[in-house]
C-alpha cells in the first residue's frame, strides 16, 4: 500500500482536512495527531476499517479501541447512559486527554470493543484532530499509531518508522505535547476507577469525584493481579535495549547511574534523565533530556520520544531517572515501569510514594 503523507499545520487547512476526513468516512486508515500521542484512525462503525486497524498495528483483537468524537451529540448515539459523575468530568476535562468508559449501545461494533459491553470514548483537544473528527462525522476508532509492542509515537517521523506502507494516510503535524496516552477512567463501576494514569491526574479527578480510585495494578509494580483494562496486560512501550529506572534524591540517582555506566563500559549506553542528572555525566554515553526537572510535563513530553531515539541508536542498555508517584509522576512511572520490565529501584531507602 502506498501511504500518502499529508502536512496539516493547523485547523484552517480546510481542503486537506476534508480529504482525510472523507477518507476516514470511506473506511480508509488515517494516522492523525492528538495532544497525547498520534492515533491510527479508522471509521469506528465500519467493520472492515476496524479489522484493518488491528492488522496494521499487529494488535491482539481482544484489546478494545477508543472511539474519538468531536461533539457531545455523537456521545449520545454511542452510549446507553451518561452517569452524573461522567457529566461532571466531561464538563471539566473535555475536550482533553481523558478517556471515559461507558455502557455501549448496540450500534457500536463488537470489533471496536473486543466484545465487551462497554466502550471507551475520548474527545481530543488537539485542533487538527478536532477539525478532522468534526468533518468525518463518524466516531473514529484510534489506538496509538505504533506497531504493537513499540512505544506510542509522538512525532510524525516515529509514525512513519512504524506505519509507512501500512495505512492510507499519515497526517504530518507537530509533536504531541503531553507525550503519553490519555488517562482512562471506567465510569461503569462504583466508585469510578482509573484504569490508566495520564496527564489528567488522580488529584484532578478527585477534585470532581472525591471517591475515585485506582486499579491498583497501574500504580503498584508488585501487584500481579490481572489489570482491569485489557490493554494494560500486554508488555507495552518496551524498547529493545535493557532498561533500568532509578527513583529518589537527584544526587543518589546521578551517582547510581554513573556507577552503572562504569560497570558496563563494554556496552553502548543511553541515559534518559533530567538536565540536573545529565549535566554531571561526563562519560561518553548517549544523553537524552527529560527537561530541567522543574516541570513533569517536560518529562512526559519527551519520554516516549527519547525511548524511540534510544532504540534507533541501537543502544544495549538504557538508564532512566524516575519520579515520585504524585500528579503526572504516576502516569510517567506507569510507562517507565513497563519500559523497564519492572526494573525500578528506589534509592535511599525511601518508600516509593503514591
Ligand atoms: O491518548 C490516547 O488515548 C491515544 C490517542 C490516540 O487518543 N489512544 C490510545 O489508544 O492510547 P490505545 O488503543 O493504545 O489504548 C486504549 C486503552 C487500552 O489499554 C485498552 O485496553 C483500553 O484503553 N480500553 C479501551 N476500551 C476499553 C474498555 N471498554 N474497557 C476497559 N479498557 C478499555
Ligand atoms: Mg497503545
Strand content: 15-25%
User: What's the CATH C level of the largest domain?
Assistant: Alpha Beta
Derived structural class = alpha/beta
Order of helices and strands: EHEEHEHHEHEHEHEEEHEEHEHEHEHE
Tell me the number of strands: 16
- Heteromolecules bound: threonylcarbamoyladenylate, magnesium ion
**What is the residue-averaged pLDDT?**
95
Structural domain tally:
2
What is the terminal separation in angstroms?
46 Å
Radius of gyration, Cα only, in angstroms? 20 Å
Low-confidence stretches: none
Order of strands, main sheet, comes to: 1-8-2-3-7-4-6-5-9-10-11
The helix fraction, in percent, is 25-40%
The helix tally amounts to 12
Largest sheet: 11 strands, mixed
Would you tell me which CATH topology of the largest domain applies?
DHBP synthase
CATH architecture of the largest domain: Alpha-Beta Complex
Subcellular location: Cytoplasm
Family: Belongs to the SUA5 family.
GO molecular function: ATP binding; double-stranded RNA binding; L-threonylcarbamoyladenylate synthase; tRNA binding
Main location: cytoplasm
Amino acid at each position: 500500500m502506498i501511504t500518502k503523507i499529508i502536512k496539516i499545520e493547523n485547523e484552517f487547512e480546510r481542503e486537506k482536512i476534508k480529504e482525510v476526513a472523507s477518507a476516514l468516512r470511506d473506511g480508509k486508515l488515517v494516522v492523525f495527531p492528538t495532544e497525547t500521542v498520534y492515533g491510527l484512525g479508522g471509521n469506528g462503525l465500519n467493520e472492515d476499517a476496524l479489522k484493518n486497524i488491528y492488522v496494521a498495528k499487529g494488535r491482539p483483537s481482544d484489546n478494545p479501541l477508543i472511539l474519538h468524537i468531536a461533539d457531545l451529540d455523537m456521545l449520545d448515539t454511542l452510549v446507553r447512559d451518561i452517569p452524573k459523575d461522567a457529566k461532571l468530568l466531561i464538563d471539566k476535562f473535555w475536550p482533553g486527554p481523558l478517556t471515559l468508559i461507558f455502557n455501549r449501545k448496540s450500534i457500536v461494533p463488537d470489533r471496536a470493543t473486543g466484545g465487551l459491553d462497554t466502550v471507551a470514548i475520548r474527545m481530543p483537544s488537539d485542533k487538527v484532530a478536532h477539525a478532522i473528527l468534526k468533518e468525518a462525522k463518524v466516531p473514529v476508532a484510534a489506538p496509538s499509531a505504533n506497531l504493537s509492542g513499540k512505544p506510542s509515537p509522538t512525532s510524525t517521523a516515529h509514525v512513519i518508522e512504524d506505519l509507512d506502507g501500512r495505512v492510507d494516510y499519515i497526517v504530518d503535524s507537530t509533536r504531541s505535547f503531553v507525550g503519553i496516552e490519555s488517562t482512562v477512567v471506567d465510569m461503569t463501576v462504583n466508585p469510578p476507577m482509573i484504569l490508566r494514569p495520564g496527564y489528567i491526574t488522580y488529584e484532578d479527578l478527585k477534585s470532581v469525584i472525591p471517591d475515585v480510585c485506582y486499579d491498583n495494578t497501574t500504580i503498584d509494580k508488585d501487584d500481579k493481579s490481572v489489570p482491569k483494562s485489557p490493554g494494560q496486560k500486554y508488555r507495552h512501550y518496551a524498547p529493545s535495549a535493557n532498561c533500568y529506572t532509578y527513583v529518589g534524591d537527584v544526587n543518589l540517582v546521578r551517582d547510581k547511574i554513573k556507577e552503572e555506566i562504569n560497570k558496563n563500559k563494554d556496552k553502548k549506553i543511553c541515559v534518559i534523565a533530567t538536565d540536573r542528572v545529565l549535566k554531571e555525566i561526563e562519560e561518553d554515553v548517549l544523553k537524552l533530556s527529560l527537561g530541567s526537572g522543574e516541570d513533569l510535563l517536560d518529562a512526559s513530553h519527551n519520554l516516549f520520544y527519547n525511548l524511540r531515539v534510544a532504540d534507533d541508536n541501537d543502544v544495549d542498555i538504557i538508564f532512566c531517572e524516575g519520579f515520585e508517584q504524585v500528579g503526572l509522576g504516576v502516569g510517567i512511572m506507569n510507562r517507565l515501569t513497563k519500559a523497564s520490565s519492572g526494573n525500578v529501584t528506589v534509592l535511599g531507602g525511601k518508600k516509593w510514594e503514591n
